Structures are given as structure tokens and as C-alpha cells.
Structure to design on (459 residues):
């Protein structure tokens, strides 16, 4: 079974890595959120997950990041099931959920240092430059609990730039950001996909992205199908 | 190509971060120690100041107080990390979660367990514990309090996702503390009576090695269950 999938992966992508899901199914409580979800995300693509509230967008991102385990199906990265060898996948992926994962007692700089210790630090990462890029210049040494919600979000996003991950999995990354922050983040996204990165995100904000990189997926259609199947 | 951070540096960074966080909450830092002291000083007030009574129950009192103080402080190990999403980030590191968790447990022991070793002899004096037993008291606490942190971490990992896990945590963890209590208090009692205590210390040492090797894996697994 696994061998077949591996062969298929290399065939369809011509040796390029993809992140793909095979018959993915998600159950929360007693509710089937979606099933038979098969998506392939090649390098250099940004995938926006759409759908009404409660259709399982956050759950899908948590499955893709490996925080949650799927009820059925597999998630493959470089042809390997991500739950088989977590360390390979985790070193290639970064996840930003509803919670920032930022310690209020630590400064922005200390938070980034810690994030780098957990992951692969970028070679040329000057943390001051990264924070300045996210309009946090001058706030490097202030405990994050004294910063605003938007600034805390920026610190969490700075983690993406400070570490070296191919796959960015972002749940509502634009939350609490101002107009300028949104534009800056879109610019950062474009650079990441241009460098053969993968971005999977949920947002209710219409993205201004080049069509050749951008794809959207409406999750609701998988849940409708699954309801019929379940019935 | 970029080099991933090494495991030893990740271990050190987690340890350093947890210690830094503890010292920035200076108000809460001394709580487990003060709790330990207050519980012990309540007993002479309750059972009367007769040296003969206090002398016999001193080892038990100090050990039960150490147990309760460890219970009280367990919440700080994972709770705040769970609530602000840091725990999620830690589990998504490419480093083995069990090693990172061990660093957190070590930090917890350094902050809540280690200070008890220094204050316990003074409380022993307060309870008329014979001088011969002081050394054994400190050694048993040195071997026993890390076990409390290690075993408590498993229970804390399992209950961190619950809003009110406090009572459940006690029900899960306190029965597992019983062997430590028995051998710890018994060793101090025997030492007070002038008997050899090597056997008890070896048992405590064995328990420490057992929990040290198994608890990080169990804790890592329980955290993964809690956050999913």
C-alpha cells in the first residue's frame, strides 16, 4: 500500500517534493468534519483553505502540522507518512495556530532565540533585522506582555523568518494585524513561495497573490459529500 | 545548508527558559517552599509541643509536607505553556519531545524540590528530630523529590487539557507517591533509632532511576494526547 503511494508521488511530481493527503478523514467529538480529502501541494505554492465556520479548517491545519492525528488516512511529505518519522517533517514545517506560542514574560528577542533552539535557525538570520522588518524595531527587549495583540502576532510571525522551514502552516495569520502589516505579510508570503516554500493558510481576508502560485480549496464541499456518505 | 540546532543546546535552552520564567515570577517562586514550612509548623501547634511525640512523627510530617508541596507546584510545569500555545510549539520541534520534557522536569525540580533540601534540616530541629537522622533526611529528600517531579509530570501532562484538573491530578498522582513516602519516612525513622538505612536508600535510588528513564516518555505521550 505504502509502496504504491510512494511510486505515485515521485511519478506525478517528477521527483519534486510535495505535501499530500491520502483519504484524510477528521472526526471531532461525534461529528465527521470531512473525509476522503486528497490534496497535493507542490513546492512553491500557497494554498488557502476556505469554508464556513466549523467546517474543519483549523482541524485540517492541526492534522497537517502533526499536532493532531487523523482518524483515517495519511499525510505524506517526501513520500513518507509524517507520523512515522516526526523529526524529519517537524524540521521542515512551522505551525502558527490561534495561540501565538509567545511567552509574555520574555522579550521578543528571547522568544525568537528559544524558537531557533527548537528548530533549524536560518543561516543569515539577524534577529534585529527580522524584527525591524515586522515593524518591531525598538521593541526587541520589551517583555511581550507589554506589547499589543498585533505586535505579539508579529513576534509569532517573526519566528517563520528566524527559522528555516519549507512548509508554513498558518491559522488566520492576519488576525490583529493592521493594513500595513497585512501588506508586509503578503510580501513575505510571496518571497517564501518564490523560494520554493509551501504555505497553507486559512484566512477570511482576500489574498492578493499571483495566480501561478495561488490555489484555494473549499473544505465545505468535502464535508457535504461526507454527510451523504455517512447517511 | 543550515544546521539544525543540536539536541544538547535545545535541552539547555528549555532549561534556561523555564528557569528565567520562574525567576520573572518572583512572587510565585517561593510559594512551594513557604507552603512546605507552614504545613510542617502547623503540626506542633496541633499535636502539642511534647518532644517525644514530635520526634516520632517528624519524618512522616516532613515527607508528607514535601509531597503536598510538590503536588501544589505541579500546575506550573505545563499549564501556562499549554494556554499560550508554547507547548504546541515544543511538541512540533524536531527534537525528541521526551528530552525537552526532561529539561522542563529538571527545571521544575531545581525550583521547587531543591530548596526543600536546605530548609528540611531546620524544620527537623523544630520537630526535635535527632541529629543522627539529619543526614538521612537530606539524602532521602535528594533522592525522593526528583521522583515526585518526574511522576507528577506524567499526571500533569494528562490533565493539562482539562479546565479543572486539580482534583483528578491528586487522585492520579498521590497513590504513585506512596512508595517514595514509605521508604523516605521509614529511612529517616530508622536513622533516628540508630539503625542502618542503606537498604532504603538503595530502593529510593532504584525508584529514581526507574522514573528517570520511563517518565519522560510517558509524559511526552500524555502531552501529545492532551494537545490533540
Amino acid at each position: 500500500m505504502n509502496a504504491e503511494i510512494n511510486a505515485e508521488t515521485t511519478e506525478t511530481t517528477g521527483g519534486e517534493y510535495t505535501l499530500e493527503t491520502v483519504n484524510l478523514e477528521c472526526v471531532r467529538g461525534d461529528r465527521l468534519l470531512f473525509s476522503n480529502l486528497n490534496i497535493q501541494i507542490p513546492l512553491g505554492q500557497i494554498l488557502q483553505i476556505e469554508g464556513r465556520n466549523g467546517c474543519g479548517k483549523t482541524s485540517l491545519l492541526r492534522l497537517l502540522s502533526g499536532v493532531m492525528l487523523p482518524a483515517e488516512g495519511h499525510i505524506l511529505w517526501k513520500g513518507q507518512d509524517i507520523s512515522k518519522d516526526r523529526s524529519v517533517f517537524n524540521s521542515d514545517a512551522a505551525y502558527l495556530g490561534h495561540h501565538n506560542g509567545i511567552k509574555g514574560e520574555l522579550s521578543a528577542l528571547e522568544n525568537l532565540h528559544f524558537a531557533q533552539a527548537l528548530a533549524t535557525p536560518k543561516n543569515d538570520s539577524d534577529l534585529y533585522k527580522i524584527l525591524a522588518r515586522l515593524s518591531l524595531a525598538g521593541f526587541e527587549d520589551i517583555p511581550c506582555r507589554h506589547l499589543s495583540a498585533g505586535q505579539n502576532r508579529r513576534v509569532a510571525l517573526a519566528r517563520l523568518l528566524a527559522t528555516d522551514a519549507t512548509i508554513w502552516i498558518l491559522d488566520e495569520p492576519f488576525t490583529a494585524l493592521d493594513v500595513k502589516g497585512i501588506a508586509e505579510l503578503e510580501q513575505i508570503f510571496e518571497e517564501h513561495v518564490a523560494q520554493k516554500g509551501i504555505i497553507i493558510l486559512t484566512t477570511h481576508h482576500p489574498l492578493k497573490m499571483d495566480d501561478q502560485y495561488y490555489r484555494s480549496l473549499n473544505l465545505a464541499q468535502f464535508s457535504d459529500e461526507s454527510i451523504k456518505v455517512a447517511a | 545548508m543550515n544546521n539544525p540546532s543540536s539536541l544538547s543546546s535545545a535541552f539547555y535552552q528549555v532549561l534556561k527558559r523555564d528557569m528565567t520564567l520562574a525567576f520573572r515570577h518572583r512572587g510565585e517562586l517561593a510559594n512551594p517552599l513557604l507552603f512546605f514550612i507552614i504545613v510542617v509548623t502547623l503540626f506542633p501547634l496541633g499535636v502539642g509541643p511534647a518532644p517525644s511525640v514530635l520526634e516520632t512523627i517528624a519524618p512522616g510530617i516532613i515527607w508528607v509536607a514535601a509531597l503536598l508541596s510538590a503536588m501544589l507546584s505541579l500546575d506550573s510545569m505545563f499549564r501556562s505553556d499549554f494556554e499560550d500555545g508554547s507547548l504546541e510549539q515544543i511538541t512540533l520541534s524536531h527534537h525528541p519531545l521526551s528530552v525537552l520534557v526532561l529539561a522542563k522536569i529538571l527545571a521544575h525540580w531545581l525550583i521547587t524540590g531543591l530548596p526543600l533540601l536546605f530548609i528540611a534540616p531546620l524544620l527537623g530541629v523544630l520537630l526535635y528530630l535527632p541529629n543522627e537522622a539529619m543526614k538521612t533526611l537530606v539524602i532521602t529528600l535528594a533522592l525522593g523529590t526528583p521522583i515526585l517531579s518526574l511522576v507528577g509530570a506524567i499526571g500533569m501532562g494528562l490533565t493539562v487539557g482539562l479546565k479543572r484538573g486539580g482534583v483528578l491530578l491528586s487522585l492520579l498522582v498521590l497513590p504513585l507517591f506512596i512508595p517514595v513516602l514509605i521508604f523516605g519516612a521509614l529511612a529517616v525513622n530508622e536513622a533516628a533509632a540508630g539503625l542502618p538505612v542503606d537498604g532504603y536508600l538503595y530502593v529510593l535510588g532504584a525508584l529514581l532511576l526507574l522514573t528517570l528513564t520511563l517518565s519522560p516518555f510517558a509524559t511526552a505521550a500524555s502531552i501529545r494526547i492532551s494537545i490533540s
